[in-house]
Amino acid sequence: MIQIDKITDTKKHLDGIAAAIFDLDDTLYPEKDYVKSGYKAIAESMPEVENMAEKLWTAFENGAAAIDYVLQSEGVFSEEKKAECLRIYRYHTPDIQLYEGVLEMLCELREKGVQLGIITDGRSEGQRAKIDALELWELFDKIIITDELGGTEYRKPNEKAFVIMQQHFSVGFEEMAYIGDNPQKDFTAPVRLGMRAVHFVNTDGLYNK
User: Fold this and answer.
1) In this structure, which of 21, 36, 158, 159 has its CB flanked by the most CB atoms within 10 Å?
2) Cα-Cα-Cα-Cα dihedral of 79, 82, 88, 89, to 10°?
3) Range of the domain at 159
4) Residues 144 and 49: beta-carbon distance below 8 Å
5) DSSP assignment, residue 182?
6) Are the beta carbons of 146 and 120 closer than 8 angstroms?
7) pTM exceeds 0.90
8) What angle separates helix 31-45 from helix 79-91, to the nearest 10 degrees?
9) What is residue 94's three-state secondary structure?
10) pLDDT tens digit string along 107-164?
């Protein structure tokens, strides 16, 4: 497995690769910004709770179920209010940006004839909102949200998304690379299938610890 400290170093390790497949969260953009964006959207709907976005983030950093914790600690908890906060979080329009240099890197890879894909786990509505906000649909040749394949059982390390991607690009697995930040799940299927694995060691990642 190849390790890189900057996501933009990916292109240095793709000699002979016909298709580069990327993870999304904490690989192409910082996931903590998505979480903070969601908390801000919740806070805007509940002005009666002072500094709610900051309180949600602090609770999250401390390992708590943030929405439950803050609603309870502020004395405003109800199942209906919790459900509304979750709905806002999951369907909000994210305020997120690609990591610096990622857009230029992707354009350079396309100019070199490398086909581009994304395989990402997560709820469909949230992942699609992120992809929309980052304007990735036209940059990538194929995007797979694994939950849309039939449920959470198709999330990584399940091989199905990688097989679908290989069939779509009509190249051998040895001509494909997967770039991600989570060694616990991102690379099991690619390595088993014979793909190149590029680990983005993202020390600023949301779940880096």
Assistant:
1) 21
2) -140
3) 2-29+98-200
4) no
5) -
6) yes
7) yes
8) 130
9) coil
10) 999 999 999 999 999 999 999 999 999 999 999 999 999 999 999 999 999 999 999 9
